[in-house]
Design a protein that fits this description.
- The chain is an alpha+beta fold.
- It folds into 3 domains: 2-58 and 327-385, conserved putative lor/sdh protein from methanococcus maripaludis s2 fold (Beta Barrel); 108-213; 245-320, Elongation Factor Tu (Ef-tu), domain 3.
- 26% of the residues lie in helices and 32% in strands.
- It has 5 helices and 21 strands.
- A hairpin with a 2-residue loop joins strand 16 (339-341) and strand 17 (344-350).
- The longest helix is centred in the middle third of the chain and has 39 residues, at 175-213.
- The chain is elongated.
- Mean pLDDT is 77; it is low at 1-47.
């Protein structure tokens, strides 16, 4: 009766799809909701046909798509304004650690450096002079200099021994305080000269730091993945220059549903598959402590074995244990019904208007009997093309050979 129903619907819409009854689920009762006897080659070896999605209990695992990323990848930015005058290479070139990748024009900085060096020389000369003046005051105080006293010969000596002594005793002067004040003044001059010398050194250090910032170097040995500037471009601080990555060690970054993260542990070995290289074993290296508030997923990174072919940006799939999936019914479809649109699988689903629509799905691990479970994107009972012809597009009529 199901075959007669499909036939009447297709005739009413004008779509001619001869249906092989061998491809339809058995009419009798089945313990798994009409799940067909999955024998290899039973369903359409290359011919188009209609398949009704069935559901069956699956094991507690799920396959998630992720992206291959480098373990270390940074984007280097400009630290000061300037004009690009040197580029060390292009995308794909290798750089050793501390190798210069980008250079900015530093003519203005060199002029500032020469001026700062001249200021340093002046500060050193002032420091030496202030130290000499302090030493003179310490060993030959001006307060005791006979040349500073009025008169000459005997009058000067008389003033030295009698006039000043009597004046100090009467509170009209204090030679000791005058000496201390002179020493303090010369000491202050030495400290001031030392501060100016330190300031000159700081100016040179600042300019040399800017000269270093004018040369962008590789922080580690890696490959140039992207450059954002060319020679002659003018950049401002914070503007990206190049991206460099260490592709000797790769990881898979995948967004895992929160309900699955509880069954994962750092160091766990997980089966993975890349677009190149086939199936490998990856090791969980990091589980982020917080979930994404919008998608309710947790980022998990898995280390790939050394020497794994490929590079950052490749599509990858990992099969994770799903402790909450035991006993749940999972839709299954023929392997030949899924096509690739980019990195994601898709199937042609019959809509309410009896026209096919392309729908992206997520597949599980193949069951080994010509069928594969669908983790998301399809529901049991929906109708799909069992084996779309090459070049088929959504909405086109399908003609198949009856088996």
């Amino acid at each position: 009766m199901y075959a007669h129903f499909i036939k009447s619907v297709l005739l009413a819409t004008g779509i001619v799809i001869p249906i092989s009854l061998a491809a339809m689920p058995p009419a009798g009762p089945h313990p798994y909701h009409g799940y067909p006897a999955m024998q290899a080659g039973q369903l359409y070896s290359g011919a188009a046909g209609v398949y009704r999605v069935m559901a069956t209990p699956q094991n507690n695992s799920m396959i998630l798509g992720g992206t291959v990323v480098a373990m270390r990848e940074v984007t280097l930015t400009a630290q000061l304004p300037g004009r690009i005058e040197y580029l060390g290479g292009r995308e794909g070139d290798w750089f050793t650690s501390q190798a210069v990748i980008v250079g900015l024009s530093d003519d203005g900085l060199e002029a500032e450096r020469r001026r700062a060096i001249a200021q340093l020389g002046t500060a050193e000369s002032m420091l030496r002079n202030s130290q000499v003046q302090y030493s003179r005051e310490l060993w030959a105080p001006r307060s005791r200099d006979i040349g500073r006293m009025p008169g000459m010969g005997m009058p000067s000596m008389f003033d030295q021994f009698f006039t000043r002594g009597i004046g100090s005793g009467m509170g009209l002067g204090n030679p000791w305080l005058e000496r201390q004040a002179d020493l303090y003044g010369q000491s202050s001059g030495v400290q001031k000269a030392q501060s100016q010398l330190l300031q000159a050194h700081s100016g040179i250090d600042s300019i040399e730091a800017k000269l270093r910032d004018a040369r962008t170097v590789a922080p580690f040995t890696g490959v140039l993945t992207k450059k954002f500037v060319e020679i002659g471009d003018t950049v401002q601080p914070g503007e990206p220059l190049v991206s460099i990555a260490d592709v000797s060690r790769l990881q898979i970054q995948v967004e895992v549903p929160v309900r699955v993260v509880g069954g994962l542990q750092v160091g766990m070995s997980i089966p993975a598959r890349l677009d190149v290289g086939g199936q490998i074993q990856a090791r969980i290296a990091q589980i982020y402590p917080a979930a994404n508030a919008n998608r309710h997923t947790v980022t998990v990174k898995l280390d790939l074995p050394e020497g794994t072919p490929g590079g950052p940006g490749l599509y990858a799939e990992v099969m994770l244990p799903d402790g909450n999936g035991r006993g749940q019914l999972t839709p299954v479809i023929p392997v030949n019904s899924a096509i690739r649109r980019g990195s994601l699988p898709a199937v042609f689903v019959f809509g309410s208007d009896n026209k096919t629509q392309l729908r992206l799905i997520r597949l599980g691990e193949p069951l080994g009997n010509g069928f594969v479970p669908v983790l998301s994107g399809l529901r049991a009972g929906e109708q799909i093309l069992a084996a779309p012809p090459p070049g088929y597009r959504a909405g086109q009529a399908v003609t198949a050979t009856r088996y």
